[in-house]
Amino acid sequence: NCQKRLIQELRCMVDASPVGVFASPIDDLNLLKWTGILIGPENTPYSGGKFRLILNFTTDYPNTPPTVNFETRIYHCNVNSHGRICLNILDQDWDPRVSITQVLIAVRELLVHPNPSDPLVGSIATELISAPHSHDKTARRWAQLYADAPIIQTNELQ
């Protein structure tokens, strides 16, 4: 049952939220729409940024994956301008045993290891491959502008 599973997952999230991610329903009356916070991982251009996610579930969850979108703008080859995320576990590799916590960890891991071979934004993927320093500088600037990331020296990204 969808409601039962979502309540169970919320309990797990509250009891043992992993470092850098958290999500919960937007309101108590609707368990099908959650908001999440992802903290940009250290040693990435996104370090320290607070990225807001929106998670939508269907009544067929967990048989159908949630849709997870960045609400905060992010400069990333696997996230388009609408916040859509290209991540296999949210699509063809979905498994009903995957938890919301695991989904959030996978999204955060995508910030550490972008996948330019399967991009949603080809120009950013090309820049990541051909001019990584320029890519990281732009990604950092966006993290500061949109995700309230602390200002750090450029050499700290290396």
From TrEMBL:
Q: Which keywords fit this entry according to its UniProt record?
A: ATP-binding, Nucleotide-binding, Transferase, Ubl conjugation pathway
SUPFAM superfamilies per record: UBC-like
Q: Which SMART domains match?
A: UBCc
Q: Does the keyword NADP apply?
A: no
Q: Which residues form the UBC core domain?
A: 1-148
The record's active-site residues are: C86
Pfam entry (one): UQ_con
**InterPro entries recorded:** Ub_conjugating_enzyme, UBC, UBQ-conjugating_AS, UBQ-conjugating_enzyme/RWD
- Alphabetical list of Gene3D superfamilies matching this protein: Ubiquitin Conjugating Enzyme (3.10.110.10)
Q: Does the keyword S-adenosyl-L-methionine apply?
A: no
Q: Which GO-annotated molecular functions does the record name?
A: ATP binding; transferase activity
Q: Which PANTHER family match?
A: UBIQUITIN-CONJUGATING ENZYME E2
- Which family is this sequence assigned to? Belongs to the ubiquitin-conjugating enzyme family.
Full protein name: UBC core domain-containing protein
Q: Upper taxonomic classification of the species?
A: Eukaryota, Sar, Stramenopiles, Ochrophyta, Dictyochophyceae
